[in-house]
Amino acid sequence: MTTVGILGGGQLARMLALSGAPLGLRFQVLDPSAEACAGQVAPLVVGDYGDRAVLDELASRVDVATFDFENVPADAARHLATVVDVRPNPAALAAAQDRLSEKTLFRQIGIPVPAFQDVASREGLDAAVASVGTPCILKTRRLGYDGKGQFRIRTAGDVDAAWQALGAQAGLVGLILEAFVPFERELSVVAVRARDGEFRTWPLTWNWHVDGVLSASLAPAPGIEPGLAAAAASHARRLAEALDYVGVFALELFCRDGELLANEMAPRVHNSGHWTIEGAQTSQFENHLRAVLGLPLGATDAIGHACMLNWIGEMPDPAPVLREAGGHWHDYGKQARPGRKVGHATVRADTPESLAGALERIGAALGRQAQVAPVLEALGGASLS
Asked: What's the confidence (pLDDT) of residue 171?
């Protein structure tokens, strides 16, 4: 029986283990916290990612290893790769961990990106703002996610505050200044590449964020011209081939005036692909495992229309979701706290109209009208009052 090691024990590892059970797979999860939620469904090794003895212990128990968290130290993945096969490869993980390296790679392989500049000093920030223009966003090059490590500079008068907020990070994890994109839609393409180079994408997903955290995803994204979808898939394929990537990843995109600009890559299964569990022929989690293990990939076609609603901070009442014929509930088994992803729901329907009706009922019952309103607008449904 094959055993898969996972660096990181969050909800993504949890869902990987749940999707791998029907394939007869076993799992070993490594996480620094004994409370990691994946430990509720798979054996958990508690230890620091930088402890080579712990990594060697994990390697002795598994046949292949992967990760569920892009901030797992690349050095840990490199060390593990000297003992056991690691997919995606550690070089892909390292490339995605540094926003400057990532944006530079995108540009080198022909994926359009917003203007950006490396920032190493206060004077460098002034020069970067002059070059990029305002509005713009100062970000840490490393360790930022879900809106963390960012400061929006609306005018030149905000530069001092931005440096006070993030300047201390310049010598630690580096800083990058990016042009603000007045986008019309935030999209993501979730893709998978197999060991033999086979490549597939799920339908484009339309995403909405609140305070930098994903709030809702809709797939297939309505109103997408075939040329735009083809461009997104082409960008993802080019990126996967450049990195010799094996497994699932997401490429986050801004859509502006019919053009796609790459925001960032997530080298792992992704929040915006959670809808695939119930809404696609093969979920992102199962296909990631198939790719990592060298198995044939499954079909990525959508089954009707699906919306994923993220639960942040606390779990609402599941009953309104479960009353719907296409309602599916996912509780991550985490302790509630502000800003924490604790679960999600996916609502699937055969038609956009049926999906809109279910979301309207759920939003009203849970007091989540604001969360579902942009999805209803995208579906062409009536706004909630």
From this structure: 76
pLDDT category of residue 144 using cuts at 50, 70 and 90: low
Torsion, Cα of 81, 86, 91, 95 (10° steps): -130
| Amino acid found at 23 | L
Mean pLDDT of 371-381: 92
263 half-sphere exposure, CB direction, 13 A CA radius: 24
3-state per-residue secondary structure call for 220-285: CCCCCCHHHHHHHHHHHHHHHHHCCCCEEEEEEEEEECCEEEEEEEECCCCHHHCCHHHHECCCHH
Mean pLDDT computed over 307-329: 98
Q: Which of 17, 13, 14 is nearest to 2 (CA)?
A: 17
pLDDT tens readout for residues 20-73: 999 999 999 999 999 999 999 999 999 999 999 999 999 999 999 999 988 889
Helix (H, G, I), strand (E, B) or coil at 11: helix
Question: Dihedral angle at the C-alpha atoms of 150, 154, 159, 164, nearest 10 degrees?
Answer: -40
Domains (ranges, CATH) in the chain? 3-86 (3.40.50.20), 115-179 (3.30.1490.20), 185-379 (3.30.470.20)
Q: How far apart are CA 343 and CA 341, in angstroms?
A: 6
Q: Helices marked H in the chain — which ranges? A: 11-20, 52-61, 74-81, 90-97, 99-108, 122-132, 159-166, 226-242, 276-279, 284-293, 319-322, 352-366, 369-379
Question: Average of pLDDT values for 277-289?
Answer: 98
Q: What is the dihedral of CA 328, 334, 337, 343, to 10 degrees?
A: -20
The pTM assigned to this predicted structure is 0.94
Residue 336, φ and ψ in degrees, nearest 5? -70, 140
46 SS3 class: strand
Identify the residue whose tokens are 């461009």.
231
Going by DSSP bridges, is the β-strand pair 26-31/44-46 parallel, antiparallel, or unpaired?
parallel
Type of residue found at 8: G
The model's confidence at residue 145, banded by pLDDT at 50, 70 and 90, is: low
37, 334 contact by CB (below 8 A):
yes
Assess whether pLDDT exceeds 60 at residue 320. yes
